[in-house]
Specification:
21 strands; disordered N terminus
């Protein structure tokens, strides 16, 4: 083969030989019009000497991708006509240009630095689509990437191994993928933000809020109440407020909930979008709201010093803490106090003269909690940690079960019980939440586990998952005969549905039927499940970041339980972070409640588990 390749003929000589035979022919000459010569004759014309090697080289050339001569079945040779040669040359030029264009596309993507907007604009639709496919694949596992045969050639051309880690790194280096964005967020209902049309609709509703809306004239004016809203300092969507009414028949706990149904009509553009999202999504570095934040944190929220529309429930408790009487009203309120939990704790503890309503509310709601305990309610009032990121700074937010948080939590449960009772008594379809009874560990079993997170985990393992349906049923762990979530209509679409059902009942207008409500609840299941998965993925990611920067640090933990004993996958509680952690436990075989001092190793790919090494 090397000897034959040595006889490569100059292109100029080949063209001259073709011209010698074809110069007198028409451009479109047919094979019958073309002269015929033998291979030997052509060899004599082209070569200085003709032997077996030279003839073999010429024979091989005639069978190759040459444009000048046609080898006939009878082993003779004819010059090709001009038109055929021109078409071939045009194809070659097009192929060369296509090859150059393809190489230009690869060159645009070859640089490891961030790809600018200008460079992205130079990509063809085909390569932009390829990048979109790469972004989708970066959310999958290695097996799924290798199974996508259509993109393997592109990955090879880009120099990317068909592995999730390699693909993610390639995209991250080019600023095409945010390394901190949960994979599940891509393509979800929260990923695109709100369209310009939806933002314009939110602005229109903000303006419209200053005018009278349907039902406003029938609202009960409670602007004289001292209403307290209690939230974290950075909370923007303010759903709920509390006030106390001292009446002749006793003390009434008023729970006021924001009323977005006043502005957001069923089937309107923002309602459709809110239904698609089902809930606000809370991530370490911010919120992806169910409604545009300008609206949710503005006229829909219960803002201190502003006249606000609300749906309010008033409850009077009996001596035991059960609901003795209740009222449901559409109201106007004017919150006077926008408190943080720390501010509220101070007011509860100090109960200053003339401003002791919050302290009395806290006492009443403690009384209510004791009643729920008597009904079998299970309390898991522990500190809970969550990683938060602000201004590129990663910190732990630890939520302690302080008096004001317990008060607000109990008030929200009280409203849920009151609304459920109202719905049951009115035969009104609502999205009731229930939980089947569970067989809990015996007292002897629990005594063998230290009090704290490990004991809580042992109890929670026995509980069945809560379900949602249109039939009122008992909720085991809350100690309630019926329960409805109704306190976050700005952040949970199901709560907005509850408000609409209640308002329809109050106004004596048609409410959703049971089948209509069931269909809507079913529509919410998928985005709600997605939101939980994305939030968990987000926290796991930031856990890896947190521990990767502290791999030499020792952590005091409590062993909670084995998740997959065969793989040594364990659940532990990190005391300083008030947080449960999943990882591969190395160096011990503990039982529930055992104290462990661990190093936490966060290396390898995102898909790999943390390593928990006993020290």
């Amino acid at each position: 083969m090397d000897v034959l390749q040595a006889y490569a003929l100059p292109e100029r000589d080949l063209a001259a030989a073709w011209w010698l035979f074809a110069s007198d022919l028409k451009a479109s000459a047919t094979p019958d019009e073309s002269p015929v010569l033998s291979v030997e004759d052509l060899a004599e014309l082209l070569l200085d000497q003709v032997g077996l090697v030279e003839l073999a080289a010429l024979w091989r050339w005639l069978h190759g991708e040459q444009q000048w001569f046609r080898l006939r079945r009878d082993k003779t040779v004819q010059p090709r006509n001009r038109n055929d040669i021109r078409r071939d040359r045009q194809k070659q030029r097009h192929a060369q240009l296509a090859k150059q264009a393809a190489q230009h596309q690869l060159d645009l993507l070859a640089n490891e630095g961030p790809i600018s907007v200008d460079r992205l604009a130079q990509l063809t639709p085909r390569w932009r689509q390829t990048l979109e496919q790469c972004l989708d694949l970066a959310c999958l596992d290695d097996a799924s990437i290798r199974a996508d045969t259509e993109i393997q050639d592109d990955l090879k051309a880009l120099g990317i191994r068909p592995e999730r880690g390699a693909l993610r790194q390639w995209l991250i280096k080019r600023a095409l993928l945010d390394p901190h964005q949960p994979a599940g967020l891509r393509g979800s209902v929260w990923s695109a933000g709100f369209s310009d049309d939806l933002c314009a609709e939110a602005d229109r509703l903000i303006e419209h809020s200053l005018q009278l809306c349907d039902g406003d004239g029938l609202r009960l004016d409670l602007t004289g109440h001292s209403v307290y809203t209690v939230d974290d300092a950075d909370t923007r969507e303010i759903d709920d407020g509390l006030s106390l009414e001292v009446a002749n028949d006793g003390l009434w706990i008023w729970i006021h909930i924001a009323d977005p149904a006043r502005l957001i009509a069923p089937g309107s553009p923002l309602d459709v979008e809110a239904r698609r999202r089902a809930t606000s999504l809370y991530l370490a570095d911010g919120t992806q709201p169910m409604l545009p934040m300008a609206l949710a944190a503005g006229v829909l929220s219960l803002r201190a010093g502003h006249r606000c529309a609300a749906l309010s429930v008033a409850v009077r408790l009996d001596d035991h803490g059960a609901i003795a009487d209740q009222r449901l009203e559409r109201t106007w309120i004017k919150p006077r106090y926008g408190l943080t939990y720390e501010d509220a704790d101070d007011l509860i503890e100090l109960a200053p003269p003339g401003d002791d309503a919050l302290s009395r509310l806290a006492s009443l709601l403690q009384h209510r909690q004791r009643w729920r305990e008597s009904q079998g309610a299970l309390l898991f009032d522990r500190s809970e940690g969550r990683l938060r990121r602000k201004d590129d700074q990663l910190d732990i937010q630890i939520i302690d079960p302080c008096p004001s948080r317990l008060m607000v939590s109990e008030a929200m449960l009280l409203m849920g019980a009151a609304v459920a009772e109202f719905g049951r008594d009115s035969d009104l379809p609502l999205p009731f939440r229930s939980q089947a009874p569970a067989e809990l560990p015996s007292a002897e079993e629990l005594q063998r586990i230290p009090e704290g997170p490990a004991r809580d985990t042992a109890v929670k393992r026995c509980l069945s998952r809560g379900v949602q349906g249109t039939t009122p049923m008992a909720h085991f762990s809350l100690g309630l005969s019926a329960y409805v979530q109704a306190t976050s209509p700005i952040r949970r679409y199901a709560d907005l549905l509850v408000h609409r059902q209640l308002i329809a009942c109050l106004d004596e207008t048609p409410a959703m039927t049971e089948s209509q409500l069931s269909e809507c609840i079913s529509d919410l299941e998928n985005p709600l499940r997605q939101s939980i998965q994305i939030s968990r993925e987000d926290q796991r990611h930031w856990q890896r970041i947190w521990f990767s920067e502290r791999m030499d640090q020792l952590w005091s933990t409590q062993f909670l339980r084995w998740l997959r004993p065969q793989d040594r996958l364990a659940l532990v509680h990190v005391d300083a972070m008030a947080m449960a952690l999943v990882g591969i436990l190395e160096g011990a075989d503990p039982i529930a409640g055992d104290a462990l001092t661990l190093r936490v190793i966060a290396d390898g790919d995102e898909s790999e588990q943390l390593r928990l090494i006993v020290s």
